[in-house]
Amino acid sequence: MIAPRVSASLWSVPADQLHHEAVRLASAGLRTWHWDRSDGSMAPAGGFTASEARALAELTGLASEAHLMLADPVPELDEWLAFCEVVVVHAGSPTASIALARIAAAGAR
Prior knowledge:
Elements (H helix, E strand, L loop, with lengths): L17 H10 L4 E7 L7 E2 L2 H11 L2 E7 L4 H8 L4 E4 L6 H10 L4
Parallel strand pairs: 1-3, 3-4
Antiparallel strand pairs: 1-2
């Protein structure tokens, strides 16, 4: 049996509290961040840019996974693959097959 993997999202944390909450959760034993990014085409616009997420991941030393709710995830994909073990894209995206091939080629899931 595969053990469940628990990830945490900071999407709803106010910007002025991100650093504090990230460090607090990492100190409490969190192992993985779940980064959401939406352009508004599949969910309300918001979340983190890859550079914002990467900075918090590097600050805490935790693993990362990304959920890209983008009409076209391909232009941002390499930025996320640079630090994420898992990258989720939506099958409804017209470039989903291209994105999935690049994710696999990068050795990510």
